[in-house]
């Protein structure tokens, strides 16, 4: 049995770390990847799509690396479509008795992991439901830098073996930013859905202050999911409570997203970690291969949003 991968594929989220891996591979500093795969939730910020276009045109294409964009649909439209099964986003819930909660996160698996696996299987020549022979696997590169090494995980299937080349070099996020800056890619954005409930105040402010149309879009979506997703409502499992995008569980248009000063932090009795989470949200958006354990631990089910 061969222990060689059939090919090398980069999981390209188009954020700082995976953009760095693509460029290092394209420049020959790291071995060449055969493919880069971007899982499109259909609701990334415009800046991410623009950056991805640039990466493909200026970095991947000249090096002969194909970039595949794969998708399981549009997460925003699916949430608001009563006829569509919806993989739940991690919404902030206010229960009827005033207790806070969160809905279970299924969106990363549905909109990111699943389409990538489908593409890898197709490239291997064993589309689902074909059985992949023992010993046949691909090497999948995942962009995890040294400051977040605890997020490095194995893939959950035998036909994909994860590698984290930034840990081998070893490079931190700052090293990546320096390198991208040297290539003229200093403005590499954070990659995650425009209305991801994991955003911190800094991300919400960035949308509000730089892109009025995208701000209007997330405010409208936030109001539309107040009673849960459309499918759950249509099927009679209406949310017993209210759902919000912002962690304060206040409508986004009124949510306190301005920077918390040291005096306000003291008045609110927030620890430094709480203030940091409020400001920055979940680190580096959502990577399909590096779920945040603590974010998952916060989740609850039973709000009728998991259908
Ligand atoms: S970015 Fe947020 S909303 Fe989008 S798939 Fe990831 S966790 Fe879900």
Plain-language structure description:
This protein is of the alpha/beta class and 307 residues long. The protein has one domain (8-297). It has twelve helices and eight strands. The chain has helices at residues 16-26, 46-63, 75-79, 107-124, 165-168, 173-182, 201-210, 212-224, 230-234, 262-267, 272-280, 293-297, and strands at residues 8-11, 35-39, 67-70, 92-95, 100-102, 138-141, 160-163, 241-244. Strands 3-2-1-6-7 form a five-stranded parallel beta sheet. A hairpin with a 4-residue loop joins strand 4 (92-95) and strand 5 (100-102). Helix 1 (16-26) packs parallel to helix 2, helix 1 packs across helix 6 and helix 7 crosses helix 8 (212-224). The longest helix is centred in the N-terminal third of the chain and has 18 residues, at 46-63. The chain is globular and about 60 Å long. It starts with 7 loop residues before the first strand and ends in a 10-residue tail after the last helix. Residues 292-307 have low confidence and may be disordered. Bound molecules: iron/sulfur cluster. Iron/sulfur cluster (SF4) binds at residues 41, 75, 89-90, 105, 107-108, 111-112, 192-193, 196, 198, 285-286. The site of iron/sulfur cluster (SF4) has 15 residues, from helix 4. This is Phosphoadenosine phosphosulphate reductase domain-containing protein.
């Amino acid at each position: 049995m061969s222990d060689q991968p059939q090919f090398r594929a980069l999981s390209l989220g188009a954020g700082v770390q995976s953009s760095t891996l693509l460029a290092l591979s394209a420049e020959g500093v790291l071995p060449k990847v055969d493919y880069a795969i971007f899982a499109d939730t259909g609701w990334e910020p415009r800046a991410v799509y623009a950056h991805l276009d640039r990466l493909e045109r200026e970095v991947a294409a000249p090096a002969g690396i194909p970039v595949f964009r794969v998708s399981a649909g549009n997460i925003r439209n699916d949430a608001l479509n009563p006829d569509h099964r919806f993989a739940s986003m991690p919404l902030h819930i206010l229960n009827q008795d005033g207790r806070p909660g969160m809905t279970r996160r299924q969106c990363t698996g549905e909109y990111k992991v699943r389409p990538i696996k489908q593409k890898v299987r197709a490239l291997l020549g064993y589309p689902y439901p074909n059985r992949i022979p023992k010993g046949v696997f691909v090497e999948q590169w995942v962009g995890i830098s040294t400051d977040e090494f605890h997020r490095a995980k194995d893939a959950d299937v035998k036909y994909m073996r994860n590698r984290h080349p930034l840990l081998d070099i070893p490079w931190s996020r700052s090293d990546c930013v320096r390198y991208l800056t040297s290539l003229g890619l200093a403005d590499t954005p954070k990659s995650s859905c425009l209305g991801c409930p994991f955003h911190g105040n800094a991300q919400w402010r960035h949308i509000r202050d730089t892109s009025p149309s995208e701000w209007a879009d997330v405010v409208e979506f936030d109001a539309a999911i107040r009673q849960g997703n459309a499918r759950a409502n249509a099927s009679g499992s209406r949310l017993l409570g209210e759902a919000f995008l912002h962690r304060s569980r206040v409508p986004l248009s009124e949510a306190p997203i301005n920077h918390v000063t040291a005096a306000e932090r003291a008045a609110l009795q927030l620890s430094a970690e709480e203030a940091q989470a409020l400001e920055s949200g979940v680190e580096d958006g959502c990577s399909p291969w590096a779920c945040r354990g603590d974010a998952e631990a916060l989740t609850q089910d039973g709000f009728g949003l998991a259908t």
